[in-house]
Amino acid sequence: MNKIFEIPLYAYERSPDQDAETPVRRKVVVVGAGPIGLGAAIDFAQQGIEVVILDDNDKVSFGSRAVCYAKRPLEILDRLGCGKPMVDKGVEWNVGKVFFDERQVYQFDLLPEDGHQFPAFINLQQYYFEEYMVNRVHELQKQGAPIEIRGRNKVLKVEEHGDHASVLVDTPEGQYALEADWLVACDGATSPIRGMLGLDFVGRVFEDNFLIADVIMDAEFPTERWFWFDPPFNKGQSALLHKQPDGVWRIDLQLGWDIDKEEEKKPENVIPRLKAMLGDDVQFELEWVSIYTFQCRRMETFRQGRVIFAGDAAHQVSPFGARGANSGLQDTDNLCWKLKLVMDGTAPESLLDSYDYERIHGADENIMNSSRSTDFITPKSDMSRVLRDAVLDLSEVHDFARPLVNSGRLSVPCTYDGSPLNSADALDGPDRTRPGSHCPDLPVGDGYLLPKLGDKFTLLTIDADAPDKIEESGITVTRLALSTKNDPSQMLKDRYLGDAESGVYLIRPDQHVAARRPSYDDNLIRAAIRRAIGKE
Amino acid sequence: MSDQLTLTPNIAGADDFYAELLTTHEGLSKADSDALNARLVLVLANHIGDRVILSQALAAAALKSEE
């Protein structure tokens, strides 16, 4: 049976654009049909913006690649209409075990907070992730949404012209030129678009190689994340074992710097390593083998006029902590509503500067966390290793050392503190819902809060009066009225009020808090709306 | 002051602290790093002061369980 990643899901078809006498101008062209490009395109299409995706391939991701998806991206995907199939297929896990040398030093439970529609994490092969997104694209097409994926359309040239961008595209039937009001580059860590525009991509290179082997096996291992520091089967290095759907297990082995990658990838060299880890009696089959190195770096700015970068094209992190695809989806979640307002003329183009501000803030946080994990997992000096080993030895006996053990700080959404779109915090409420924060979910009625917030500006009122609808500067804000009287779990109070008696939250289309106050004040809320769209 | 050594997590921003510790050692030879650690132990011991706690800390670091 063919794997899903061996079947063309969006085969090349000739587009009328290829026969046009002068280049056709499209509203938005997205380059790259990975998780981030598909996420951006679905978001645009759902908002009624015409979008064309150009991809040099016609299949989903080859091999499982990114396998760990966090709650916030799942919430975003739910808004995009494809979160639930991912959770249904994905493997949920909460328990992790940490091994050092030959012994288990401790285990932890993520203890996810109650009252969220989506789990803290799922493991899912990237090819399924992309397949469900492609399915969603096809579903939108059937509903008449203006979205198109052009397979085997490889961008050869790109130029930015101030009020549009132009590309030269290669296809199996020759080249054609295309123009876009806006071009969103989601073409991955090696972003050819970034290279063609001669833009920088600076940061830290880590001199290490990791072997990924995804194996199919019937094994008795529980659904847990197992991480080894310096195990007997990979002396001086690290190892990871993690479960995916369909009996596929992710095995990640640190190999060190000075290796022959082509040799190490050969099954005759991979299989003995895996047998040493899993034991001789475990039967397994290799699904995918890859060797990767990584960098932690970002572009100085994510926008070059009409060309906007998102995901790995804009920033790259080490894989520890699952901050690649997870942060990329937060990029497009941040970008798409802003670009829609700019395209409609509702907001000034300068609103897009806040995309740079907010997502660079996110990228820096992710780079910092994943660099720290990498420094712990692969110590770069003798003393770094001595301290690391001391933490691990202590962690076996003393609780205090466990928070210092760093095998990856798992992805959480960042708070846009200091964003120019935030209004000053006027509520004595919980820290976690201060302006700039993403909204934490909770049960509301027979559903959840986040789907009720949707993808439009919302005024969330808790035991406070306010108009049901506010029109300001071309924005319609709809009220969602909740009360702590219908809050038996106290989650609404704990997450949104704290010690305050009442609260009014202005929530952006990406479900981040723009402003909050104890009660409705017409002038101040209108000012907050203008500020949230870059008009104040 | 408690006469019991704290062995539960007590550092707010543990990752920040650990990163600063590594930064302090960055670029030092192993011998210089060892010397830095020794000075750090003495500085922290002086801050704690309490002899009972210091003895408990020595035992904890030696990975001996308390009697």
Summarize it:
The complex is a heterodimer of chains A (about 525) and B (about 70). With about 525 residues, chain A is α+β, with helices and mostly antiparallel strands.
N/C terminus separation of chain A: 58 Å
The CATH homologous superfamily of the domain at 4-89 and 120-201 and 296-367 in chain A is named: FAD/NAD(P)-binding domain
SS content category of chain B: mainly alpha
Query: How is the main sheet of chain B built?
Result: none
Indicate the overall shape of chain B.
Answer: globular
- Helix residue percentage of chain B: 55-70%
| Uncertain stretches of 5 or more adjacent residues of chain A | none
* Oligomer kind: heterodimer
Largest sheet of chain A: 8 strands, mixed
Strand content of chain B: under 5%
Helical amount of chain A: 25-40%
Q: What structural class should be given to the helix and strand makeup of chain A?
A: alpha+beta
Query: Percent of residues of chain A in beta strands?
Result: 25-35%
Mean pLDDT of chain B: 92
Total of helices of chain B = 3
What is the CATH level 1 assignment of the domain at 4-89 and 120-201 and 296-367 in chain A? Alpha Beta
Q: Using DSSP, what is the number of strands of chain B?
A: 0
> What Rg of chain A do the Cα atoms give?
24 Å
Distance between the termini of chain B: 21 Å
Shape of chain A: globular
Our Rg estimate of chain B from Cα atoms comes to 14 Å
Keywords:
heterodimer, A: 536 residues, alpha+beta, FAD/NAD(P)-binding domain, Glutaredoxin, 28% helix, globular, B: 67 residues, mainly alpha, 3 helices
